[in-house]
Design goal:
With 468 residues, the chain is mostly helical. The protein has a single domain, classed as Growth Hormone, Chain: A. It is built from 20 helices and no strands. The longest helix has 59 residues. The protein is globular.
């Protein structure tokens, strides 16, 4: 009997020990999954960020090759501006479809197809035998790259904490702007060495290879890899579960009719429209014509502005998350941004001293990305399940500004180019940039403060929709 009890006790101890070992093994397995999720999200984001570098390259590259295009195709200033604007029109009109694709098809397939299309368009642009093919290539590039950023925001909402969204948007903007920096002095060097045709064809080939990498590496959510969600890691329930997810068309209607969506749109229109008119279209010519700089040196000044934009996006997003405010940083940085444009337009009758251009352009670029907080606001004032659609509406603004403002300046150059001195001519043109920036600044005061969290369910708009 004693032997039997002894044997039973040993068996019970073995069962308990095995249970503890299984529990410990399960805990270790879960811990490993958490570690894998927290590390792999950076791989997913990193590959998408590489695609975003291509986006920024094409966004600003056209200004550097202006003389090459004029010499090759014999185009006017308005036609040149329209070539540049083709990218922005395509990008703008694709923003809502991009949000729908990001929410339905998923970031992986969306970015793969978009980057592939952009690569084909870049090759077409580089090999274009006539204006039609030049415009067609630029159009394909615009359509292709238009889906990348919204997909990144969608991935961020699935792989990163809500409190990290502003910071991650700033980091994403910083990395993307490396493509904008490459589209200045480095591009001028490459074009001088390889010709503009070979350079754009080469970028197209790289884009096609990157599309393949996106498909292999990127995953839409941690669940696609059997990993825990960020909400599960934080011990929270998904906010999207707190409010019933509306159908797709209703989601679009809700975001479009939400008055809190639109201030970010207007801010992005004014701020970025003015910035890209300088750095992506007319800045190189401005520095050559007004200051007499050599064509190979002028991009250095614009590169400083783009570097400022990259660093500013990183810092502004971090500050916003740290102080738990979207509105205050937008107003503060927006004030400085508009002041920089006032200096460009009004100081020295439109010709500020050349000695201040480097710091002036850097500060202008550094403060411009106050608009990045508009993306976070767009997400935080709308239904959590439609992050792609709501941010895409806000994101349309910058490309609306980038599409309509440069041709306005081009028309001024074509109309008054033979009758005005260069300084007066550019002052007259850049006055429109100042006006755009000023209008955007006014709308920073109309932004709905979210305190860096989703307020849809608590907002008047959200309550009314829930009651319906």
């Amino acid at each position: 009997m004693k032997d039997f009890k002894f044997t039973c006790n040993i068996s019970l101890h073995k069962v308990e020990w095995n249970s503890m070992r299984l529990m410990k093994g399960s805990e270790n397995m879960e811990e490993n999954k958490v570690k894998k999720m927290l590390s792999y999200r950076w791989i997913v984001w990193g590959v998408l960020a590489l695609a975003y570098i291509i986006v920024f390259f094409h966004r600003l590259a056209i200004g550097v090759v202006r003389e090459d295009l004029v010499n090759t195709f014999g185009i006017t200033g308005t036609t040149f501006a329209n070539i540049g604007s083709t990218y922005f029109y395509a990008y703008m009109f694709m923003q809502i479809p991009s949000g729908i694709l990001a929410d339905s098809l998923g970031a992986r397939k969306t970015v793969t197809l978009g980057t592939l299309l952009a690569g084909i368009g870049s090759v077409m642009f580089g090999l274009a035998p006539n204006l039609f093919m030049l415009f067609a290539g630029r159009l394909l590039v615009g359509i292709g790259v238009s889906v990348v950023f919204i997909a990144i925001l969608k991935v961020q909402s699935q792989w990163f904490k809500e409190s990290e969204f502003g910071t991650m948007s700033g980091i994403t903007s910083f990395v993307g702007n490396m493509g904008g920096i490459f589209a200045q002095t480095p591009l001028a060097i490459l074009v001088g060495y390889f010709t503009w045709r070979s350079t754009f064809a080469g970028i197209g080939a790289i884009s096609i290879l990157l599309a393949i990498l996106c498909y292999v590496v990127v995953r839409n959510t941690p669940q696609d890899m059997g990993l825990p969600t960020i909400e599960e890691i934080e011990g929270k329930k998904k906010e999207a579960q707190a409010v019933e997810r509306p159908p797709l068309l209703k989601s679009l209607g809700q975001a479009l009719t939400n008055p809190y969506t639109w201030p970010g749109f207007v801010i992005f229109t004014g701020f970025f429209g003015a910035f890209v008119s300088l750095t992506g279209t007319w800045g190189n010519s401005y520095l050559v014509d007004v200051y007499g700089l050599a064509p190979e040196k002028a991009p250095n000044y614009l590169m400083v502005a783009v570097l400022g934009l990259a660093l500013g996006g990183l810092v502004i997003g971090k500050i916003s998350d740290a102080v738990k405010s979207r509105k205050i940083p937008m107003i503060a940085f927006g004030t400085i941004y508009v002041a920089c444009w006032a200096i460009i337009v009004f100081v020295g009758d439109g010709k500020p001293p050349v000695e201040i251009l480097y710091p002036l352009f850097f500060i202008l670029g550094f403060t411009c990305p106050a608009f990045v907080l508009g993306w976070a606001c767009g997400k935080e004032v709308n239904h959590p399940a439609i992050a792609g659609i709501s941010t895409s509406i806000v994101n349309m603004g910058g490309f609306f500004g980038g599409a309509i403002l440069p041709p306005i300046l081009g028309k001024i150059f074509d109309t008054y180019g033979g009758t005005m001195e260069a300084t007066e001519l550019y002052q007259k043109a850049f006055l429109y940039c100042f006006a755009f920036a000023a209008v955007g600044y006014v709308f920073t005061f109309l932004v709905k403060e979210t305190r860096c969290k989703n307020i849809y369910a608590d907002s008047l708009c959200g309550r009314n929709l829930k009651q319906k």
